[in-house]
Every structure is written in C-alpha cells, then in structure tokens.
Amino acid sequence: MTEPDRPVSLLDRRTLILGASALSVTACAGQVPSLDELPDPNAPDPLARYRLSTSDDADAWMRHLDPSRMRGGPDMLALSGGGEDGAFGAGALNGWTSHGSRPEFDLVTGISTGALIAPFAFAGPEHDTALKQIFTQHGPDDILRLRGLRGLLNDSLYDVKPMANLIAKYTSADVLNAVAARHAEGARLFVVTSNLDTGKGTVWNMGALASDGQYELFREVMRASSALPGLFPPVTLQYGTEGRTVRETHIDGGVNMQLLAVPPAAFSGPARRGNGGHLYVVINNTLDPSPQPVARNVMSISQRALTTMIRSSAAETVRSARLFSQQSDLDLSVASIAQESGITFDPGARFDQQYMQQLFAHGYDRAARGALWGNLPNTI
Question: Is 253 exposed, middle or buried (0-12, 13-18, 19+ CB in 10 A)?
Fold first, then answer.
C-alpha cells in the first residue's frame, strides 16, 4: 500500500529591510545553494549587526555587548540543548520564580531546545506561563509530522511546519517587544545556530533582531537552532547583497556546542574587570544517567551513541565554565536532571507529552524547594 502523499509546506518567503542598504532576507526550508550562491568569505558580513561567529574575537563581541552590564557583576543564564528534555529547564524557571530567588538576567544564551526557552527567560517571569504551556500542553502532533518513506529521499524525516506555527504562536509581538525593551536596557540574548555550509557556529543577537522589528527572522533563528539534523529540515536563510542572492543553511546549534556558557572573548578588554557576577547553567539532560541495557539494533545503538556524545560535550563545557568562573571571580551554579528522578526516555516516542510533564514537574519541584543547583557527578 502506498503512503498518501503529504507535500511539505514551504515557509512563506519573507523580506526584511536592513537599514539604508535595503538588504533583504528570506527564510525557507529544503533548498540547497549552489557554490555561486554561498557567501563570499572575504567580504564583510551584511548581517553583522545581528550576529557573530563563535570563534570571533573580543572586538566583535564588544559590538554586541553593553560593557556597563558586564562590569556590574552580571547575572547570566546559559541553557543547553536537549530536545524534549527542555521541559526540565522550563519547569526550573517556573519553580525558581515561585521560590522568589530568580534574578533579572543581564545575559541569556540558548542552544537547540535552550533557544526555545531563552527568549521567555530573558523577557522575564511574567512569561513563565507560556513556557509551561509550550512544554506541558503540546505533544508530537503539535511539533512534527512524519514524512514516511519520502523523508528518506528528502532533507529530514519530519516536516516541522507544526513547530514553526507553534513558535509563531508563542513569540507574539508582545513577547518580542519585551525582548526589545530588555535589550534597550543593556541586557543581551544570544542564540546559537550551526551554519552547515561553513561548519561554524553562529551567535545571533536576538535582542537586536527584536529591536529592529525582524520578527520573522527571529522566529526562524529559533527554529534553526532546534533543527536536529536528519530529523528536522534545515532552515535556509536567503538574502541579497551587492547584486547577488546568497543562501545559508542553518541547523541545530548543538552540532557545534551543547552550551554557550561564557565565551572568554566576551569578557576580555573593557567588557570585564573582575567585579563578580553569577553564571547559572541549566543542562537539559542527565549528566550521570543510570545504566540501561541497549537493544542490539542500529537505531538503539545510534541513539545511545548520540546521547553519550551530547552528554560528554555538555560535561566538558561545564568543566570549562567552572575553570573560567574561578579565574574571573564568577559564582557558578549548575543544574541538570537528577539521576534519581526515575524519569525514563523512550527514543521511539519523541516529544511525548506525559514525559515532558514529568520533567517539568521535576524541574519545578526542585527549584521551588531551593534544591535546583549542585546535583553534578563527582567527575565534573
């Protein structure tokens, strides 16, 4: 029996005007650029106002930071990747607010599922309800749609038009205006994507996007950062510059890193003078999982290997953040899903609503009791 044809809906082409240069940007999925459509690596980045590379130096970071915020003992929040495990981070933020000890963050970073949480964490506790709804009231049908056999011949197994709709629903003009208002105060929100064409990580200044009214690009960056390669389609950013049409393919920021804790370049030079501060790291994963048998089939082995690599990357980033914090007079607090939670993940049930509700409750309960931080294994 032949599977019914369910064509993938392409996102509407959107034009963004970037200042006097009238640079246009559109976002769509599923297109592969030819070599002559790729950006010129020797030319200035026409989107430099909105982004930088993860490998850029202090001068590039200074164009995106407010030094007065960085010198004043900033409170910073870094949110990791983790797919549906982002329900833990969403619950933790809600419980943290309930506990009454949640600070107003000067800097928030997010990758993958962390990129879906970050704008709401940055905008403030009044947006906690949206976070709870996203991770507890929506199941797989609201996020993805299986392409079936056609997915093996396309760019991903799933069509995520439902996810694009979900992002658009929750990132209303009110939310983005709140992000822009905090940006105007000097606070900063950064989200990471992976540029598949160059293999490099891209850090997006989301507050700058919101301030300039680039709402659709803001939403597409959120979707790109959480586009798990192979499962979800990449996001193709298209823009015109110097008479050329340029296309870039962006996917999950977790391909390059699981966590953007504190880039050293962002804290060198005039941005940092060792005046204290606090770095809060939320790992949407279990860093010290209980032993579980692995079924002897390709899917199970591949899933476990990928999960192991992700956890290893997150653990290494936490170790680096700890060293940097010690050197920079920063307090460091780290939270991850506790081994004793007893919540088990079924790889065959992506974005299972009951699983996410359990994780949300786990994060909320620990934060509301003041027991969110410090459950790391001795090896980290």
Answer: buried
Q: SS3 of 245, please? A: strand
Q: Are 171 and 216 in contact (CB under 8 A)?
A: no
In eight-state DSSP terms, residue 378 is T
Q: How far apart are the first and last CA of the chain?
A: 52
Pair 288, 311: CB distance under 8 Å: no
φ/ψ (deg, to 5) at 371: -120, 30
CA 235 → CA 16, 162, 245, distances in Å?
16, 15, 16
Phi, psi of 204 (to 5 degrees): -105, 130
Pairing of strands 235-241, 25-29: antiparallel
**Do 99 and 370 touch, CB atoms closer than 8 A?**
yes
pLDDT tens by residue, 202-247? 999 999 999 999 999 999 999 999 877 766 778 888 887 777 788 8
Give, as one character, the DSSP assignment of residue 7: P
| Contacting residues for 329 by C-beta, under 8 A, at least 6 apart | 274, 275, 276, 277
pLDDT of residue 346: 67
- Per-residue CA distances from 192 to 63, 138, 224, 252 (Å): 17, 24, 9, 8
Residue 71: CB partners within 8 Å, gap ≥ 6?
A: 271, 272, 273, 275
Residue 207 tokens, joined: 């507050």
